[in-house]
Amino acid sequence: LAIEVDHGLSEALREVVGSYPNVRIEVSDAMRTDWPTALGNEHWSMVSNLPYNVSVPLVLDLLQTAPIDRYVVMVQREVGERLVARPGEEAYGAVSVRVAYRADARVLRRVPADVFWPRPKVDSVLVRLDPRPPAVDVDPAALFAVVDEGFAERRKTMANALRRLGLDTGDAAGILRAVDPDPSVRAERLGLDAFAAIARAMLERGWTP
Description:
By secondary structure, the chain is an alpha/beta fold. The protein has nine helices and six strands, in the order E-H-E-H-E-H-E-H-H-E-E-H-H-H-H. Helix 6 crosses helix 9 (192-204). The longest helix is centred in the N-terminal third of the chain and has 14 residues, at 52-65.
């Protein structure tokens, strides 16, 4: 299945692969594609060159909804680094945690700007993602409420984030001490397991996302 939103490029695509009986071409916007209908019950690999403005929302949506067993996607280097980043790395953020929840991700290689025409101002990377069951057992709505609030103000501590979510100072401090000895820990240092532990502890105290 080849999806191309640009009508001019789709004609070139038909010239190259249109004669193959096992290739289906759709001229459509991948962000508006009904993926369950388009992909059916088969298992797929996704190989794509994704524009910067759609790469993150598209990958996150597909990881939740599509029967794709493997992704090899080319994205802007900055985006690729966010997809695969680990706690403590500069690119680490809410997107990194969301990917880690559903997939194993790694950069396969850098792709320099001079292999493209016209030449872009940035380098790209090839990223591989291998989907798997969620890595932690916790209500995802609660988990990502904590994650998103934690990264909403990157210079603030997790204690501040938990207070913004409705916890009092004592409960916030007690929950955080169970996952990190530093009372001023920030979201950038916490991994998926720590965020899951925080969300579970908050739910046990009667918090609702």
